[in-house]
Amino acid sequence: MKFATNLVIAALVVASASAGNPAQVQQNSTEGSATSHCPNVVCPDVFDPVTDENGVTYPNKCAMEDAKCKGPRENVMDEYERVYGKKFGAPRDENDGVNSKSDGSDKCDDIICLQVVNLPMCGSDGVWYSNPCEFSVAACKKNIVEGTACN
What range does the record give for the signal peptide (predicted)? Predict the structure, then answer.
């Protein structure tokens, strides 16, 4: 009993010594710091496999979300180009009239994605789109159809 008590006290001393100043730990951490934007997460040790839109399997949903947060992030401008088929601010080309309404405005601009739904779809251009609405915008702007080119 005395040994167990001493062991618990020793563990507490080691834990408090290694914890240090919380601000200092935050500053020295590469994860959970202001530059990573990801919380320090400890996922449960539960095996309930999930697979992401790229076919990568994780032990559970928490592990997948943690990896996605800490993984590389897509540049917003690259995302814009992927969805709309051209760089942000690019001049209109002669093919843009295909999707024009009689008043000269682009009918693709009428597609408004109100809900953020994660239901990935593969386009014939080999790109994964986050959801059917995002796919519809891209299909309107580019000549693509739902396909299996992402396999």
Answer: 1-19
Domain boundaries, the chain: 76-95+106-141
Q: Are strands 128-129 and 121-122 parallel, antiparallel or unpaired?
A: antiparallel
Side-chain-side CA neighbours of residue 34 (13 Å):
3
Per residue, what are the HEC states of the chain? CHHHHHHHHHHHHHHHHHHCCHHHHHHHCCCCCCCCCCCCCCCCCCCCCEECCCCCEECCHHHHHHHHHHCCCCCHHHHHHHHHCCCCCCCCCHHHHHHECCCCCEHHHHCCCCCCCCCCEEECCCCEECCHHHHHHHHHHCCCCECCCCC
Q: Has this prediction a pTM greater than 0.85?
A: no
Tokens at 134, concatenated: 């995002």
Tokens of 78: 């690259």
pLDDT in tens, 30-81: 444 345 567 788 899 999 999 988 889 999 999 998 888 877 666 777 777 7
